[in-house]
Write a structure and sequence with these properties.
single chain, alpha+beta, Aminopeptidase, Alpha-Beta Plaits, 2 domains, 4-stranded antiparallel β-sheet, 11 helices, disordered N terminus
């Protein structure tokens, strides 16, 4: 279990004048190294982006894993590829750097895959000055480049040799293999070994200001299937034929909108189909057939809902199930839930990590990073470890248009994010293992 003492220890450390008096000599070298290797970092990003690694392109994901292995092994990491054929995914890259015995254990999280499969027309890295377009340029190949740049800066400054670091780069973050007990087993185990987890998905900015992510909401998929008695449309609402499947589905969705809203919750029906026959496949493609004068026999809707805690998830699920069960006359309906991603709830320990990062910002003469409203970012892999270890997300690059053609990364953000990460990891790594836990 997480101990509250860690929050206090990190908060005091982050608030102490000693941490706000400027960079050490080693930390200055880290910043200089990041700047000197900027073009190297951009070139690495270009190579990673140009290798398609859509989640279902298993060979492509494996190739990106090999490219990251080539970056990490020269830095002293022992790298292992974890195949995930059991869940129809490529696999994960796990890299371990053994440092000073008894030092704090730090977990770095990123992902190899993107949403852009080989069939997408958006395939190439195109640099435009301090910006670049490309599939996954921000999410999450930019984040992986920040990890490499930070570690190389630590090596140049002499702080990497004593650092105990484990890196988990999943190969299916955008479409996790099922069941999660298999596809996320390595990540969860790494979280239980760690004292701190840092996630290198994208940085979020508001009004030109970098924000810190101490929380991420969950995501749970759902599917509602409503059925009714079919017949001539002139007999709808009669005792014999009832309301029909489409009216039942509409009743349910309208009740969701009326009864579910509460803080930190969103819920969305993404696809709907209804008629004499109706279906929605696993890719979200809908098919329906019927006529205007036939009462619909079947209606299907798929969507998701997002919460800020596991307690909220359980409570909302219960309310949804109760709404679905209150059938309109002559109808039936059922709701099914997917595995989903858990929530990364805001905690005192996560807040203290952000305070430690803001101490780094002060020493780098960068603005303080306020906590980001968790409504403004989606679910992510770090949520699988957040119940076991204090966590901070959003240490990757600043980008826009993620998950769509034209995804654009701010290349300049590699510099400040790598400097922040190198210094933060070095400071955390110098602390005692389990200190404050």
């Amino acid at each position: 279990m997480r101990a509250t003492a860690l929050a206090g220890a990190l908060f005091l450390a982050a608030s102490a004048p000693a941490l706000a008096q400027g960079l050490s000599r080693a930390e200055t070298v880290m910043g200089q190294t990041v700047d000197a290797e900027y073009e190297r970092s951009v070139a690495l990003l270009g190579r990673l982006v140009d290798q398609n690694s859509g989640t279902l392109n298993l060979d492509g994901v494996t190739r990106v894993g090999a490219m990251m292995r080539a970056e990490l092994e020269p830095l002293g990491f022992t790298v292992e590829w974890k195949p995930m054929a059991a869940v129809q995914r490529a696999g994960h890259l796990v890299a371990v750097h053994a440092g000073r015995p008894g030092g704090k254990r730090i977990l770095l999280i990123g992902h190899l895959d993107t949403v852009f499969e080989p069939s997408s027309p958006f395939q190439k890295f195109v640099r435009k000055g301090d910006k670049a377009e490309g599939p996954g340029a921000g999410d999450d190949k930019g984040g992986m480049v920040v990890i490499v740049a930070a570690l190389r800066a630590m090596q140049a400054a002499g702080t990497l040799k004593d650092a105990n670091i484990e890196i988990v780069l999943t190969g299916d973050e955008e479409d996790a293999g099922s069941p999660h007990r298999i596809s996320r087993a390595d990540l969860i185990a790494a979280g239980r070994r760690a004292d701190v987890a840092l996630d290198f998905e994208g940085l979020v900015t508001e009004g030109g200001r970098d924000m810190g992510s101490i929380a991420r909401r969950s995501v749970t998929d759902w599917r509602i299937t409503a059925t009714g008695r079919t017949g001539h449309s002139s007999l709808i609402f009669t005792p014999d034929l009832g309301d029909g499947a489409i009216h039942e589905l509409v009743r349910i969705l309208a009740a969701f909108r009326e009864e579910l809203p509460e803080p930190n919750l969103t819920f969305n029906p993404g696809v709907i189909a209804g008629g004499a026959t109706a279906s929605i496949d696993e890719s979200g493609n809908a098919a329906a057939a019927g006529k205007t004068n036939i009462i619909a026999r079947t209606a299907v809707a798929t969507g998701d809902f997002r919460t800020l805690s596991e307690e909220q998830t359980a409570r909302v699920r219960g309310k949804m199930e109760a709404i679905v069960a209150a059938h309109a006359p002559g109808t039936d309906a059922k709701i099914e839930f997917g595995e989903g991603y858990p929530a990364m709830a805001p905690t005192a320990g996560n807040t203290a990590l952000l305070a430690a990062l803001n101490a780094v910002n002060r020493d780098l003469k960068l603005p303080e990073m306020p906590p980001l409203d968790p409504l403004k970012r989606g679910a992510g892999d770090i949520s699988f470890v957040a119940n076991d270890v204090d966590s901070l997300a959003g240490l990757g690059t600043d980008s826009s248009g993620d998950h769509a053609p034209g995804e654009t990364v701010d290349l300049a953000s590699i510099r400040r994010q790598a400097k922040r990460a190198a210094i933060l990891i070095s400071r955390l790594a110098s602390e005692r293992e389990g200190a404050g836990r």
